[in-house]
Structures are given as C-alpha cells and as structure tokens.
C-alpha cells in the first residue's frame, strides 16, 4: 500500500492542473444539474411529508446534540430546556426545514437543529432548505 502511494505522488493535484477549462466547465454544469434535480426532489418530498423532522433521535431544537437523559426525562446541557420524557430515544418531531440527501440518494427531512448537525457529517450528500410553500 505504501509502495503504491509513493508511485503516484500528488496525482489528483497534477490531473486537476492539466484539465482544460472545458472539462472544468462540464463538471460545474453536471454539479449544477445534480443540484437542480435534488432541489426538485426536495420540493416533491417536502410536499408529501406532514412536515415534521423524521430523525429517529432527539436533539435540542436550539443547540443540537446536547441532550442529557436521566430517569426518563431529558434536558439540554447548553440552554437548560427540559422535557418530561426521554427525548433522546424517540423521533424528533420538530418542524422540518431541511431535506438531507446522502450520497446514495436516500433522503430524510429534518428540523433546523438536525440539519445543522448533519451538515458536517454528510459525506458527499446534500442538505437543502425545504422551500416554504
Ligand atoms: Zn439547548
Ligand atoms: Zn430534528
């Protein structure tokens, strides 16, 4: 493995530098087309959904994954908001504002807090604001 890496020093950078402008342009167009298709899909999905976050674990709607749960009740360690049930174990249910799409094209609609949290973890995926109707 190490040998093979040494044989191709900085290959991606070299290739990118050698791309004629036309290829860069084509890649840009493809990216925009994919973005456009995803956005259309986002609108369709958004219209089909009842409009609440489908994440399967709770989160503080203001702060993110900062919940603590003990004895069947949860609270946020950041802002102190509390819930009288184990919020970390159930579906989130906050109003959905984003559609997250993973690299395989699977989608899930999520609230703002989940969206922010997922944004950093979407590897090759997309996070789209659901258009308000
Ligand atoms: Zn909070
Ligand atoms: Zn959520």
List segments where confidence is low: pLDDT < 50 over at least 5 consecutive residues.
none
Radius of gyration: 20 Å
Q: Mean pLDDT across all residues, rounded? A: 77
How many domains, in number, for the residues?
2
Fraction in beta strands: 15-25%
Helix content: 25-40%
Q: Outline, from the CA principal axes?
A: elongated
User: Based on helices, strands and strand pairing, what is the structural class?
Assistant: alpha+beta
C-alpha end-to-end distance: 52 Å
The secondary-structure element order is HHHEEEEEHE
Strand order of the largest sheet: 1-2-3
Note the total helix count: 4
Layout of SSEs?
Layout: H1 2-7, H2 11-18, H3 21-48, E1 67-70, E2 73-76, E3 82-83, E4 96-101, E5 107-111, H4 112-119, E6 126-129
One zinc ion (ZN) binds near residues 62, 63, 66, 76 and 81.
Explain this structure.
By secondary structure, this protein is α+β, with helices and mostly antiparallel strands. The protein folds into 2 domains: 2-56 and 92-129, no CATH class; 57-90. It is 38% helix and 19% strand. Strand 2 (73-76) and strand 3 (82-83) form a beta hairpin. It starts with a helix and ends with a strand. The mean pLDDT is 77. The structure holds zinc ion (2 copies). The site of one zinc ion (ZN) has 9 residues, from strand 5 and helix 4. Residues 60, 62-63, 66, 76, 78-79, 81 line the site of one zinc ion.
């Amino acid at each position: 493995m190490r040998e093979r890496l040494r044989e191709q020093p900085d290959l991606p950078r070299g290739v990118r530098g050698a791309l004629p402008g036309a290829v860069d342009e084509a890649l840009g167009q493809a990216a925009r087309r994919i973005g456009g298709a995803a956005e259309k899909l986002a609108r369709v999905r958004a219209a089909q959904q009842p409009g609440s976050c489908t994440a399967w674990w709770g989160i503080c709607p203001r702060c993110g994954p900062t919940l603590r749960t003990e004895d069947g009740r949860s609270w946020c360690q950041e802002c102190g908001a509390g819930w009288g049930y184990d919020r970390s174990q159930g579906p989130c249910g906050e109003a959905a504002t984003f559609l997250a799409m993973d690299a395989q094209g699977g989608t899930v609609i999520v609230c703002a807090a989940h969206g922010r949290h997922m944004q950093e973890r979407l590897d090759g995926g997309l996070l789209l604001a659901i258009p308000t109707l």
